Fold each of these.
Amino acid sequence: MENVAIVKGDKLILRGLKFHGYHGVKPEERKLGQKFLVDVDAWLDLHPAGKSDCMSDTVSYTDIYRIVKEVVEGPAHNLLQSVAQLIASTTFTKHPQIFAVRVVVGNVAVPGFVDYLGVEILRYKSVDASN
């Protein structure tokens, strides 16, 4: 999945996270589940960590990975938009130093000649206070 978001600054990058979830509006999607592919960009100031070399001055990739895993493998949502929004809002809640997040959620279990179908959202903490 390509990055088309235009946000300046430092970011953490997570690509190609794959999980089995039960999201969708069709009964078979909720019963059998399907594979989802997720990309996340999380913008924050990485200067302190770059200078200190201390984990306490940044956000761990694994923390964001766990958020994505919990949402995708968690309770079912009808829409991928809702899945992406929950990933973004949870990321902001758990990591207040993150000021923008891009989440792409793709469904890879689609028939035909396609890599995935999905949604991409971009949220800014300062602008979208409701997350």
Note: The radius of gyration is 15 Å.
Amino acid sequence: MRTSISENFSATRPPAGGSAGARLRAFLNREAKAAGFDAVAITSPDAIPLAGERLAEFVAAGFHGSMAWMQETLARRGDPRALWPEVRSIIVLAMNYGPDHDPRTILEKPDRAAISVYAQNRDYHDIVKGKLKGVAGKLAARTGCDVKVFVDTAPVMEKPLAEAAGIGWQGKHTNLVSREHGSWLFLGSIFTTAELEPDRPETDHCGTCRACLDACPTDAFPAPYRLDARRCVSYLTIENKGPIPLEFREAIGNRIYGCDDCLAACPWNKFAREASEAKLRARDDLREPPLADLLELDDAAFREKFSGSPIKRIGRDRFLRNVLVAAGNSADPSLAESCIRLLDDPAPLVRGTAVWAVSKLLDRNELKGLFEKRNEADDTVLGEWKAAF
């Protein structure tokens, strides 16, 4: 039995014929829907033969930046069977996290912090993995087959697998696009030793559109379907552990954690629904938090505010680095005092970025006076001072 995307979750009883395969598929649809997933489809472990080669080209070009783990896990990522030789089928599940508005509107409020939609509530890894385990456990109990669940952090190429399973296709921004959910999907997978009938792969429906490419504020796409992570705001504000390169700071604007521009620009989003799960909807305090409040966070306050959030993983120093870049771009002189205070922060990463922020908010004479009051010894921070003058 082959099930199209539009048929996912539509069956409440086994299709006509009542075969064991059809009954099992109806069972999977039912349990996935009950768990809160919006799409489920099946593919085989040999369905992405070109994915490993394309990833190797990405790494060879240096587009992965400092994400060394991508190179270290290259072999396992290229073939699901390298991760688990016994796997016979892969079930890909997707959960819609579509926002109730265009998230780019906050870019017009430079005194507010723009946080990527997916990070405005609980860590999706925890949400999706818990639900995956529930579905996988019921599948194992019904079939007697072994199962393993994966969500993003494991070396699984979920987007190519989702395309092979028919949930969507990898768009020109390299993210998954669905005709039903646009670009707003969390993905997870269940590997199983059960032999399941695979679904048809999805085809590319991007056409001549390049809205996502043109939306990128830092020109991170050297070509359609190719991403240079070193230029991507999400990489720069999350994965990057050092100072944000000067060439990207102004373009980042008030984006303090990730970037939704290429996702939000996708025309297929007109078919996406607002996320139905309350756990996926934005926390009120993370929709448009004032930069002034975030600049005041010490380590304890940072940990408390972002408990259970993916933002907590980058730590307070990187987070303050990002907020300081946004403050420098705000043209808001009322933020200057908070930035000045951070010139004396214990972390060189914070002090250095504070120099840049202050240099954007004060005139040259005021900046010189601040420098003369300090006895900075860190070479990186001194480099920021030199660049500021």
Note: The longest strand covers residues 89-96.
Amino acid sequence: MGTHNYNFTEQFEFTGKAKTLSVIAIVIGIAAIAYGFSNHDLHERTFANLLLMGYYFACVCMSGAFFLAIQFVAQAGWSASILRVPEAMAKTLPIAAVILVVIVGSGLYSHNLYHHWYAPGLTDPNSPNFDKLIQGKSAFLNAPFFMARQIIFLALYSFFAVLLSRLSNNEDLEGGLNSYRKSFKYSCIFLVIYGFTQPIFAFDTIMSLEAHWFSTMFGWYNFAAMWVSSLAIIAIILILLRKSGYMPWVNNSHLHNLGQFIFGFSIFWTYVWFAQFLLIYYANMPEETVYFYKRFEFYKFWFWLNLVLNFLAPVLLLMDRDNKRKENSLLVVSILVLLGHWVDYYQMIMPGAVEEHNGFGFIEVGTAVGFVGLFTFAVLTALSKKPLIAKNHPFLQESLNHHL
């Protein structure tokens, strides 16, 4: 069926311009962080940007593992030939998890993050800083339990991410269905754990920055953002690899599938965003509306840019079937989606971490560039360790002959 000319032992070589640029980006990020910490007045802003990018980094890697698990549980055939890319993202998760735990822990104990609930006297009735609402949440929002949840959740996600990647490697070496069956079983377990804990992870890491406010939709709002971002990254890597002469078996139908997912989940993200906004707007309760008041008052430009990049751009540009199948069109939309969800996380984090908008410049841009470089270096290094195709995947022939 035209599949015998492919080189199933081909490996990606992470050298040259890509490696050099990623290292330069990491150096820029280190310089931006050092600049932020060199000025005491910029510490909160620097920690907020570190949290933004550390969380973004961890979330897309987590979603790489989620992508793998979904494919195994659904017994999907179309994706069998592209699984090495989300596998590389999943293998990077332990690095991202350690970085995020360090950022969260150091920001918490230095009082540069989470000071709405972790500050002296907030739970002491005899203190002038006493906050009855925070005292009521203290059984859940206390530093030891908070950090324990961060470590346990990220450790669990990392364990399953690495496990699924190793099973794929064993499948290459041994053949047969034993590794695939194990992948199916462990994916089922992972999805149950992930489904119940991911909203709590989002509540802890991001929503607790504004501990007086809460939304039961916030976890799924975060899930939509991290999931569509990971789909965009998978699409970008596949397109760039294909342009560089790798993975010739990836065809326009594979891109079409990814484009459909990006299109659909961008609409889902907008639905959850609007539903959360509408309920708070309609209820008109001061303790709820303060969340959007801050974003209207101090972050209005970012508020509207968020909707343009994350809703209008993917919907208008991917509405047409042909655009989902064209490399350049899908590449542009995927980049816009990634930028859009950086704006999305910026909107989530900054009002709770630094209150009013207190500047935008080298710290924001440099930190983002640094983490992009780190992500690129780590993921492409992982990608270069194994052949670019899972040659013994039971549905490989279906994927190689996938046409829509």
Note: The CA atoms of residues 234 and 291 lie 33 Å apart.
Amino acid sequence: MKKIMIAILALTPLFSHAQTFYYGKPASISGKLLKIKSLHPNQETFGGNQIALALDERIDVDGEEGLVKTKLIQLVDTNMQRYNQYFKKEGKALDVRCKELFRAETAHHTTKVLCFVDAVKY
């Protein structure tokens, strides 16, 4: 019986699939806030920390740009008061509703996939 249970637990990851989202579409994601260092080549002017969400589970993001599998998504928020609060709440669990997910396009984009924040819940 013990061997059967171990075999079942070993095979479980094979049957679990990541949730799939699509570029340009709304998404609901959850995880913990994490400060990440900017990868911008001009560190003197544009360096420093950015905020991202370390996801509870890996997701797949698909679209014309191609499929990306990720567990880390940079947050983009036009509400600067809310955005500044993210840094103070690093490590806290957060549910995020994204207006849309988009692929990194500029040197300011540190993760492969980014989220335009619509709403958050701690």
Note: The chain has a mean pLDDT of 88.
